[in-house]
Amino acid sequence: MQNSPLILDGKVVAADVKNRLKDDIATLLSKNIVPGLTAILVGEDPASQVYVRSKERQAKKLGLHSDVIRLDAHSTQAELLAIIHQLNNDAKVHGILVQLPLPSHFDEDAVIEAINPEKDVDGFHPISVGRMQIGLDSFISCTPAGVLEILDYYKIVTSGKHVVVIGRSNIVGKPMANLLTRKGKRGDATVTVCHSRTPNMALFTRQADIIIAAVGVPELITADMIKDDVVIVDVGINRVGDAKLEKGYKLVGDVDYQSVLPKVKAITPVPGGVGVMTIAMLLSNTVKAAKKLSL
User: Fold this and answer.
1) 240 phi and psi, to 5 degrees?
2) Beta strands 238-241 and 249-252: pairing type?
3) Of 18, 55, 119, 288, which residue is the catalytic one?
4) Catalytic residue among 18, 58, 99, 120
5) Domain end marker among 117, 132, 162
6) Looking at the 3D structure of the chain, how many domains does it have?
7) Which structural domain range is residue 190 located in?
8) 55 is catalytic
9) Rounded to whole angstroms, how far apart are CA atoms 86 and 273?
10) CATH number for the domain including 80?
11) Which of 18, 58, 122, 209 does the annotation list as catalytic?
């Protein structure tokens, strides 16, 4: 058992990702091409607003052009699709992001499918997902891509390891499992996927060399559910009420951080772990899109 676990600092990795983008951005700017990212935000979801503001700020710091189109929560599907169509045909826009979740009266699948796959910097379009699954070059969903960057940066080997992914969402769990089973440096793992219908989840998590928790349940994974020297990547960001804090809540992950800390080999903190990587990978995908569309 390791007494001093390695803290997998997402802020350090995100800075490295953004630093590696600078040469590509400079090359594009020298050709009078400014990588352009447009986000569409429907409604007033607080978490979505925070994410979009942060994305806009970080994009501009790197020299990207960043726009946000804000729509009322009562906007129609037709209005949103018309905007997407316009952006699909705008040569200055290289990446389109529709912030999820959308209000309940929208068909999210239809909205995602309306985005030009060449501008699908979120990596959610069925064409992007399909290409990723069979190992072709594609836009990879930003959060799973960020997890791989963290593991890569800290030289955590996945090949031959048993990875337990907790969660089966289209945004994180499913692409994460698929990426880890692909052949190559960042894959070659044996992957078990657990979810809300998995009986006796601890039976699987105790066997894991690496756990990736992405289920959205605060502090679900506790010390009794893991073996010594496991690596944990906690994707969850959950608000939990805390009357002692001025804002009335604290952010916690899907893992009970304090209880598992004495047993783990390495772990991401919440906040400061995977969350900051998502925007870094979004910017990386936008630069990739600009390079491809400018060929």
Assistant:
1) -125, 130
2) antiparallel
3) 55
4) 99
5) 117
6) 2
7) 141-275
8) yes
9) 35
10) 3.40.50.10860
11) 122
